[in-house]
Specification:
Layout lengths: L1 H7 L4 H6 L2 H31 L1 H7 L3 E2 L3 H4 L4 E2 L7 H10 L2 E5 L6 H15 L4 E5 L3 H7 L8 H7 L3 H6 L13 E3 L5 E5 L3 H4 L6 E5 L7 H8 L5 E6 L5 H6 L7
């Protein structure tokens, strides 16, 4: 190598002379050490992600803000330090049946979808089913139509090495609007409204978005209850069975 460099006269003799075999070995050794440390750091970070959905949400992915131009901010940002975020993630991890009231700016749908993506990505053969009043809303929460979907964004905004370790069955652009599927056999899937839609499946996690506004919600919940490990119902204010369960004293608010 050194003789070929000298013959070509591409480098000054002083530079060529400095590229001795010992110095090249040092460079190679340092590169190996750097790669080993990087791999060690990634393994530690992966273990934190596996153990703690909150860590993964706040340190390893980002959300998308549709109003970023109006706000004069970046379109993709980490989860904000919401005062109730850790509490809500704790409830999602421990409660088998959970009804969550929300208002528009609380980011509850983002939090619940992040929990769903984390469950699917880090656990084999996990089926998360999402039911909304309209199919377009399910698409918005999964892969998106026009604007990036919640689940797709949370997957895409991870570091490349983390996506490489948890690949999808096909690239994001080739995934259906209502399905995000991983090579580990897990899926996040959207369904049309109606109790009969749920009876075809045995979901690990069932999510009802805007449950108080969902046709046949009580019947759909009844269909899911015997077969789901976990049921999560999220909704803004509206009278009906959802709010009767959230507020047994009869006060919807």
């Amino acid at each position: 190598m050194l003789s070929s460099l000298r013959k070509s006269e591409e480098l000054p003799n002083s530079v060529v002379a400095s590229l001795t075999e010992p110095s090249l070995l040092v460079i190679a050794r340092e590169e190996r050490r750097r790669r080993m440390q990087e791999e060690k750091d990634r393994r530690l970070q992966l273990q934190k992600c596996l153990r703690d959905p909150l860590y993964w949400m706040t340190e390893c992915t980002q959300t998308f803000d549709e109003k970023w131009q109006e706000k004069g901010c970046e379109p993709y940002r980490p989860f904000p330090k919401l005062p109730y975020l850790a509490w809500l993630i704790g409830k999602l991890q421990t409660d088998r049946r959970l009804f969550i009231p929300k208002s528009r700016e609380m980011m509850v749908s983002w939090i619940v979808m992040a929990y769903a993506v984390h469950k699917a990505q880090f656990n084999e053969k996990t089926r998360v089913i999402l039911q909304t009043q309209k199919e377009d809303k399910s698409a918005d929460l999964i892969n998106g139509r026009g604007t990036p979907g919640y689940a797709a964004t949370l997957y895409a905004r991870q570091p490349e090495w983390l996506k490489d370790r948890h690949p999808l069955t096909k690239p994001l652009k080739e995934q259906p609007d209502l399905l995000l599927s991983w090579a580990n056999g897990s899926v996040v899937q959207g369904l049309p409204k109606g109790a009969d839609q749920i009876r075809q499946y045995h979901p690990t996690i069932m999510i009802f978005d805007e449950a108080a506004h969902l046709d046949e919600f009580e019947a759909a919940y009844g269909a899911a209850d015997p077969v789901c490990q976990q049921i999560i119902a999220v909704s803004s204010v509206a009278p009906g069975w959802f709010w009767d369960e959230v507020h047994p004293d009869g006060k919807a608010g």
